[in-house]
Amino acid sequence: MIDPKRDFIPLTQNYDRLKAYQKSECIYDVTYYFVHRFLGRGDRTVDQMVQAARSGKQNIAEGVEAGATSCETAIKLVNVARASLQELLLDYKDYLRVRNLDLWLPGSDKYEQCRRACMAHNDSAFYRKAIAVRTDTAIANIAITLIYQADVLLRGLVERLKCDFVERGGIREEMTRVRLQSRKGRK
């Protein structure tokens, strides 16, 4: 009989408790609002930005869940999430650049205030309320800041997944360990 405390496939990974996932959900909500408010209906960028934001969020969830049986898949999907958010980052920067709007830079008061606010809040309801009264410049900079913060968290998650793999191995090694323990218990 397998000891439930040593079961080799966890039931859930609780991705929604990860700060990286929470940030990505905020990014999705901010992006959805942004594109529908500031971009034209026929603008292809609308779908691309929403899809990149969605991909960032969904691949974190899928990667973390897949990590129950495959560290390799988890690492790949978390990196896909990072890549999707990097694509979205470029879209926001392009939006600001082609419209001659300000990208808030480190050291500026607006940047520092935004960075602190984004670090303090991982609840998408906070952003949905806050952006309703902000300009396109402010919302784009908020999204950019959230993307940078999510990227740092996702790089940390990849490092943790790599360490977990080195420490525990993959699913085949875990299955072998449990099977050998089971055999020892029957002797």
Give a summary of the structure in a few sentences:
The protein is mainly alpha-helical and 187 residues long. The chain is built from 7 helices and no strands.
Write up what this structure looks like.
This protein is mainly alpha-helical and about 190 residues long. It is built from seven helices and no strands. It has one domain. Helices cover about 75% and strands about 0% of the residues. Helix 1 runs parallel beside helix 5. InterPro entries: 23S_rRNA-intervening_sequence, 23S_rRNA_IVS_sf, 4helix_suffix_dom. This is Four helix bundle protein.
Give the key terms.
single chain, elongated, 7 helices, mainly alpha
Q: Specify the helix fraction band.
A: over 70%
- Count of individual helical segments: 7
Number of domains: 1
Distance between the termini: 13 Å
- Average pLDDT works out at 89
Question: What are the secondary-structure elements, in order, as H or E?
Answer: HHHHHHH
Structural class: mainly alpha
The residue ranges in which pLDDT falls below 50 over 5 or more consecutive positions are none
Largest sheet: none
Strand proportion = under 5%
Please tell me what the overall shape is: elongated
Q: How much is the radius of gyration in Å?
A: 20 Å
Number of strands: 0
Protein name: Four helix bundle protein
InterPro entries: 23S_rRNA-intervening_sequence, 23S_rRNA_IVS_sf, 4helix_suffix_dom
Helix-strand blueprint:
Layout: H1 19-38, H2 44-66, H3 71-98, H4 109-120, H5 124-131, H6 136-168, H7 171-186
Helix pairs in contact: 1-2, 1-5, 1-6, 2-3, 3-6, 4-6
Organism: Marseilla massiliensis
InterPro entries: 23S_rRNA-intervening_sequence (IPR012657), 23S_rRNA_IVS_sf (IPR036583), 4helix_suffix_dom (IPR026354)
Protein name: Four helix bundle protein
